[in-house]
């Protein structure tokens, strides 16, 4: 499919439509995160799966995702971002159908690994692709739409869990993911290739045409092409670049740190254990389920704030503000289980703490970490750099998920929440010291400052 098919839309509308389509990957990611919590109990009943097997069914997706990231890094370099997204879409459809038809736990685990591969491939490729086709004034909002889709996917899964729980039909819960998967597959077939990738492969004329189509005929793309060109002189990439270039090491370390920060805020403690936390505060059955759905709704709603503000206020202020709000949320959650408070107070603190924490995450670390990770890597090492940060996201996600119950055992529920409150406070300092403001900068300008050795937080501050 040629980018020319987008000619009916106006720039930056064309880049917006293309980003929106790519962001459907986020929807699938969110569905996959949210769906298993509801499906696990009926699966365990049908297959008589013990606790260990259940853990494998859950963890298989994360394992697949961790494997999918390096695969995506190779594919998106050789075959391009668009074709890699297509492979991700095919795996989404195949994996969910495989899971829905599984006749044994082994088949189910294989299907979950396949879905994990799809998630790993698309969490790597979609933000990268969107950042590469977006124009600088809208880039933050466009990548944040990807996060919005993640939150919509999680929310849809929470609702479907609540509804299907009345019928015990786990096959539908897992199989339904194939429908958005098919839409995604068709959408991806109509996407233009990334102009930056085309330039990297020496397809200059195709790159010029695609960029012209994305920006609109009235826009001169000569400067943008020249800037991409100027960044193509380095011939090494990946490990070799990491060994040879101190500045590349800085950007890789920054990306990995940002993803660790995102995960160690504790967001997935709330996403995976919300019903349990609500239960501990005295909410029962239906109240717990619908309480979890409301947490999902807050997550969606607050993401709109990020989309509206990320290109106006910038990345740093939003991130710092969100981390402060998350700290406060965790303190409130930590206060709720103490013996002195009455049940009504405990419930108010739990709900207040969750709303505060989840909204803080949704307007800051959720979207902005994906935005920054896609922006800060130099073109020649972009696949490798984004691959490292995305893999860090999945590994940390797994650690946070499996350590929660052990932490509660050792530190108590309050102690665990306060630990996360402390971490969030620490992250405020980390962001203030090391994170650059990339609002309104071209990717090439970010790269120029990085490779000139400018201090990370001063990137983009000198004359344009
Ligand atoms: C994170 C996920 C998290 C989701 C919640 C994403 O940005 O990477 O781990 O579950 O946000 O909305």
Automatic annotation (TrEMBL):
One example GO MF annotation? transmembrane transporter activity
Q: Which InterPro entries match?
A: MFS_dom, MFS_sugar_transport-like, MFS_trans_sf, Myo-inositol_Transporter, Sugar/inositol_transpt, Sugar_transporter_CS
At the top level, the lineage of the source is Bacteria
Transmembrane regions listed in the UniProt entry: 21-44, 56-73, 85-103, 109-131, 143-164, 170-191, 252-274, 289-310, 317-336, 348-372, 384-405, 417-435
Keywords tagged on the record: Cell membrane, Membrane, Sugar transport, Transmembrane, Transmembrane helix, Transport
Q: Name one GO cellular component term.
A: plasma membrane
Q: What is this protein called?
A: Sugar porter family MFS transporter
Organism expressing this protein natively? Gluconacetobacter aggeris
